[in-house]
Amino acid sequence: MKPAARNRGKMDPEKTTLVPNQDTRPNLPTGKHWTKFEQRQWTVTLILGTAMLYSARTIMPVCITAIADERNWDKTESGTVLSSFFWGYTLTQFLGGYLSDRIGGERVLLVASGLWASVTFCTPFLIQLSDHKPTALYIIVVARVILGLCQGVHFPGATSILSRKVPEDRRSLIFSLIATGANCGQKFLTDSTLLLTFIFASPRLEYSWTDRGSSYSLGTDHYSKNAASSAPVPWLSLFTKIAFWSLLVANYCQNNAFYILLSWMPTFFHENFPDAKSWVFNVVPWLVIVPCNITGGWVADRMIKKGYTVTAVRKTLATVLFFGIAFFLALISYMETYTTTLLCMTCAVACCGFYSCCLAINPVDIAPQHAGAVFGIMNMTSALPGFIGVYMAGYILETTKSWGAVFNQTAAICILGWFVFILMGTGRRII
């Protein structure tokens, strides 16, 4: 079906079928858009920053089996360590988005990167501070909470930047490209490069204080006080929108699957296939997710340019996201060989790559002037499964000894998230 011309009659923009885009709402950026050169410069910068951020975040799940053996932690204690990151990560989501909308995400990300890199550098030394099991566990939990606090501002800040600087028909691809940095950083970057690489890769920050700090320049891009949104967020209106709540539910369900895979997949393969090479199952799934990220973003932008509604595009790709994860996770229980199990796990992780082009970018669709704050709230609620879901997975494993129980309930939650978003989600501006 070819999309009709944009001005050919009115059509319901909330239909989930692939209909032409009649959404004529203004995008309302609060500052001038980047040039193509600036888009490339900042995209590369944010990819590198995201990669190093995830390198720091995921080193603990990769090492948790060895550390647990050394420290004599059971599954519940390991789950506590893994989930503690999200206790802090949840608390700074809204603050990071709000500050980014008010003073600029560029500033917020620069300061935060120095803080979480410092925590990461100190973590190996903190593990060795005490041989007393409860004390050592407490120290690591506190360090992981602080790491989460520092990293919680990253994606709200990046979302705020993109909402101001990138036009609507290019946001999906750029956001997806930035998300590929997470997958690369999970397996390919070393912690020793975290701080220096991010600072030197970032565009040069120059301050020209006038009128008590009313303006400053950021690299080649002039940034004025009016570039960030000075309008207050219409909280009452936002919290009465069913589309906003459906986004929160959908993000919770998707992130529940992602965080369980991220935190427990190495342990799953170590226990079920002890002779398998760890570099294979630690690298292959996250390697395959990269082309899915890029492809999803490219497809979303192409569909929008061809005239399909933003709502239809987001819901179509959300279907691929949720059903793909649920289907392959459910299949794992029936796999008997290492190769078929790895294939199913890889496909499940790969489907997570479509998250960036449908759910993660949705705050920019529904609240272009307040995307950072809205993303912060969304990511705060979607971080809850980081400590609830990850901890519960450890508890289920400890009590039932069944990986199938973990994967099946995760698949069921994915289907719930799809149903809610398809029924009530939107790609239209609501505030």
UniProtKB/TrEMBL annotation:
Region (Disordered): 1-25
TM helices/strands, residue ranges: 42-68, 80-99, 108-129, 135-155, 242-267, 279-300, 312-334, 340-361, 373-397, 403-424
Domain Major facilitator superfamily (MFS) profile: 42-431
Main location: membrane
Keywords attached to this entry: Membrane, Symport, Transmembrane, Transmembrane helix, Transport
GO CC aspect terms: membrane
Domain of life: Eukaryota
Molecular function via GO: symporter activity
Bilayer topology term: Multi-pass membrane protein
Compartments it resides in: Membrane
Entry keyword Membrane: yes
Gene3D superfamilies: MFS general substrate transporter like domains
Protein name: Major facilitator superfamily (MFS) profile domain-containing protein
Biological source species: Batillaria attramentaria
